[in-house]
Structure formats: C-alpha cells, structure tokens
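It would be a great kindness if you could assist me with a short task in structural biology. The matter concerns a single protein, recorded as an amino acid sequence and a row of backbone structure tokens. Kindly check, if you would, that the fold set down in the tokens agrees with what the sequence suggests. Thank you for your consideration; the sequence and its tokens are set out here:
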Amino acid sequence: MRPSHTQGLVLCGRIPSPSHSKCDSLHVPTPDAPSIPLPLPTPGNHRSSLHVHDLLLFCTRKEMKLLEQSGALKGSLGAEEQLALISGCSDLREAVEGTVHIQECVPENLELKQQLFAQLDQIVDGNVVLSSSSSCLLPSKLFAGLVHVRQCLVAHPVNPPYHVPLVELVPHPETAPATMDRTYALMRQIGQSPVRILKEVDGFALNRLQYALIGEAWRLVEAGIVSPGDLDLVMSDGLGLRYAFIGPLETMHLNAEGMLSYCDRYREGMKRVLKTFGPIPEFSGAVAEKVHQAMCVKVPDDPEHLAARREWRDGCLMRLAKLKGQVQPP
C-alpha cells in the first residue's frame, strides 16, 4: 500500500522485457521528497517485483541517510520523514493514481519507452504530466500518436541528478505551454535547475555540447597533439573550473569588455581555428585502445575501482554543489 496522498511523482522503470505488463515504480509525494537517485533495474533481470521494490527502497534509504549525514539532504523534512512518503508498486494503474507528474526512467530504448507511454496514455487523465528522462530520443518519436501528447515532454536529468541539478525540458511540437511551465516550476521546487529547449533537436543542448567537446578531444589525441591524461587536465584544471560557475557565453562576456568587444577582438581567430576541426571520429580501433589504456592507468576498469572512483566523483560534486549554494554572484 502507498502512503495516502493527493499528489506526487511516479518514477517508472520496467523489469524483465519490453513485453512485460507491469511497471516497477516508486511513488514520491511532493514537495518534501525531492529528486532522489533511484537505481532502477534493467531489462533481463527476472527478480520478483517484491525483491526489486525492497532493493530500491533499501538503496534509497542508504543514500538518503548518507546525504543527511553529510548535510546535503534536500527538502524541508529529515531522511526518515521523506522515506515514510516513498513506496513501491508493481501495478501501473495503481502507481499513477492521483499523481501530477510521471517521470519515466526506463533504459534508453525507443521501443521500450514508446510501449510504456502507450500504456500510460490509456490510463491517465488530462491533469498529469507525462515526462521522459531520455538523454537524446526526440519527443516527436517518443510520444507519436498519443492522445495526451499535449501533456508530454522530455525532462532530461544529468547524472548524478542529486548533485548535478540541470534538467533539460524538451517539448514535443504539440506540447502545451502549460505543460512546460508546470514542469519547470516543479523542477525548481525540488531544487533542480531546469532549462527550456525551445524546440527539439537531436542530442538536445547538453549532449550536443558534450559531443562537440568529446569529438575535438578525440581528434587532438588521435593526431598526437596531446596525451589522453593531459587532455583531461585541460578540462579539470582549466576550462572546467570556470564552467562550474559560468557558462561559455558569460566567459566570453567577461573576458573582454562585454560580448561585442569579445567578438570584435577574437572573431577572426575563432573562425580560423574552427576551420581546422577534422571529421567525425570513429571512436574505435587503435585510438580507442590508446585512450582506454590511459584511463585504466588512472582508474583500472574492474568494478571495484570504477565504483570507488564514481563515489569519489559524486563526493566532489556534492561538495561543489554546497559551495555553489554558498557563493552568490554580485
């Protein structure tokens, strides 16, 4: 049984396969239980729904307790009070009853997501937002043919979402403005930083920027211009320090007497360098092996070392998030 409530969030994730008829989800009343990182199962995992719910709730409890101990817990309630508001459910109709926002969290598989939204479309009324966590699948494909398409959008979080607050809001061409507005307000309410992508584009904004950076990083390594380790330092000890607080456009604005001054001063140099950018890399073969070996020197690719490094990364992001909360621009 779920706790009694009148509104809430549902985070949906399937267990066994695209043809499975149930949705394993956690129901999170709002606004006191904020954006919790939930390790949802993947297709092919045939454990019972009860086992999955127990695992999800156990992991959530552990994570929230650690967040509370470190002073990073969001919301106005303590960890135990928030946990009392969270429940598991394996029946899709029961899971979405009385909700105002459904956040789909199944793997990045178009057919799988379409099947789930087709089921939701038959159940929900006109008052609930249907939102996908997709990182790059276009809303026009995700929500094609749905009756409630005006209530649909992508709300793409960034991992780990508890410490990296950005959420990209991407509308379907028929998404109602009120759907975008409601989701924007909800994300702000739970401590996230939503941005409006005004029309759909492959990769949205974050991944387009990320892939542009990765592409040039790969080309520089492939051409023998810089080593993989030094390339990462260019970001972590260079650009990344600025970009943690201000974006590339504000960086331009501040690095001259305003944006127009920057463009006048550096326009020709930027255009000259951009013309030298090479073709799209294959991300395979000898270069991939070279980069892999360099990364394994830093972090061996066994599960233990990778998990430890991710934990260290998340701890750094948690401390950075706390610092950003303390530093207000003039």
